[in-house]
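Let us begin with a simple case.
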Amino acid sequence: MVGVEHFLRLYEYLLKRCRAVIPVSQYLADRINEKIGIKKDKIFVIPISVDSMRFAPKAPSDTFHNLDVKDQEILLTVTNFRFPDKVALLEEFFPALARIMHIYPKTVFCIAGGGPYLKTFQEKLKNVIRPLSQRIHFLSYVKNMESLYSIAKIFVYFSHLDALPRVILEAQASGLPIIANPFGGIRELIQHGQTGFLIHSEEELFQSAKRIIEDDRLRENLGKQAREFVNENYSPQAIGSLWIKVLKQIQSE
């Protein structure tokens, strides 16, 4: 929330003088309307797109063979450890993930992303991490994300600072079911019970992950519908058509 407020204050002068404002999510559009007072008829939501040819269900890559995760149930998250509002919620929900790992011995948790708050995160949760250290992998920055998605079974994402997280779209396009908290633009990306689960507590996280781990058919259906949702709404073609429509509308006014 602090990040969005800071952005709005920083660009308020410029935004008020724009002919049109184009945010990436309805969440951000509503904040611009409420906090700056820009009329809704001057705000046009155009989300980011994702390349569903690059990000697609694939055979597991051997890029991460050093992790020794063959035949493991990999829970994956990607976060930017430069922002405390992103890290704080991962800290809050981490014990529920550890609980899953204790119950299901083949479960592995991979965390991609780096930043100055990573060491702080590891230090705060050292008592939780230490008993599971062989099954928790901190991968830092990963360039070839499509290979990482290919070895994962569930994508989890928690944040209090997001307008529209691209990594959720990439994971969905890769055919992964999503578990995330319904903050900001995140809720616009997940159809609860159809493409994944929106959770509000540690217990909801635990129960959602448990359902997916124990039910292969559910996992496959959630992942399939997630990819279909992205192809229909966030493909370059869909977003390109929306840009053309919006620009024509702005030009005609």
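The second case is a distinct protein. As before, the sequence precedes its structure tokens.
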Amino acid sequence: MARGLIQQFAAVALLVAGLGAGPAAALEFERRQVGGGVRILYLDGSFSSGDDDRFATELSKGPVDEVWFDSGGGSVDAGQGIGRLMRQRGLIGRVPDGAICASACVDAFLGAPVRFVDSPLSVGVHMFSVFRSDKLKKKYEEQVAQGKVTEVIFQMENYAASATARWIDYMMEMGVAPSLISFTVKVPHVCIYWLTAQEMLHYNVVNTGGGPRPGFKPGHGKVEHATEDRACKYAK
């Protein structure tokens, strides 16, 4: 029994150590202007708690016509906060050629009422994970250090259930195809599934190019590891 508790403790400690894992580069904002005088706000880097407030501050500094994304994800709360601001302001969203938008970045991008993606296989989705929430890292670390393993497991289960429900509500609020939700939850959070151009149209991730071609069937995108420490096991 003691050995089982030790193993349980070690497993939870490893999981907590992974909280907040993801791209290290902080989110940066850059103002650009492209042909015809289109005013761009370029978002580059990983989302962290409070970045939605920073985004609101940046918007207050001057007019923006389009928001361009280049991010591997990060904080779900920040991504959804940015997405809601995009929707409130009616800002166009774009993933430009050479950039990527994955995980929580997709939540932010979907907030745009009008969405463009310049290249296929540049928008990546996977299952929501409690281990991407940077708000819980310190709290769970302290509890594990105190030996409160059972409490941490219980809290993780409750948080994961409620956070997943909020994520589904957000996706529906943003008007994506319900089939994107059911597809996304099948992709383990240690994997990234990069959507094809036809899949982006099918799931309403891109809403500016009509519908997919007749007879289209999803499942032909690219799958990669989302983390360096865990293998991706996903069969299309």
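Strands lie at 28-34, 38-44, 66-70, 92-95, 101-102, 114-117, 123-125, 191-194, 222-225. The chain has eight helices and nine strands.
Keep these points in mind for the review questions at the end of the chapter.
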